[in-house]
Amino acid sequence: MSHNSNQAYSIWLLPETHSADVIESIIGKLSHRFDTPTYTAHATLCSGSWAGELSSLLAAVDAIARQSSPLTTTTSGIRYIDRRFQFFFLSLVTDNFLAVQNLAQDSLPGSRLPEVGPHLSLIYSDNFAGVDRAQLRAEWQSQMPDTAGFDRLALVLPSDNGWDDIAGWKIEHRTKLAG
Predict the structure, then answer these.
(1) What is the pLDDT of residues 75-94, one digit of tens each?
(2) How far apart are CA 112 and CA 125, in angstroms?
(3) What is the CATH number of the domain that holds 87?
């Protein structure tokens, strides 16, 4: 399998079934309320641009998964910043998360970590002034799970229109954490 040079990518930790059901239900309710896109619940490990063959990137993702065990992380509250992909999110405690994230970053030279740290996005939006996120946090905080379990990795590629085309994101590959 080959691709154009410098393929943008993202590596996600995918929640196990129960955690995914809870988070995706929240994403769906918020999306319906604010007319924002829906997407697969995930915590981004790292993102970057891959200059080699796609098959070698797939092999690197599989190697990371073989060396990583399923994990459960504690949530640490809702946060928000004025960036589309961190508009409204649930922060994750880094204890169990960092080993997998560090392995991913070491395995994928030039990859970048999320600036806000480990998190589960709840809303993607550019409507920074149109949503009272402090009020929204107060409304939703008690409905957030205390923990989130993760058991798979995914390699995600943007659409031909880039990352802003959320509906066009493609989960190219999924693999179980097996370490």
Answers:
(1) 999 999 887 778 889 999 87
(2) 21
(3) 3.90.1140.10
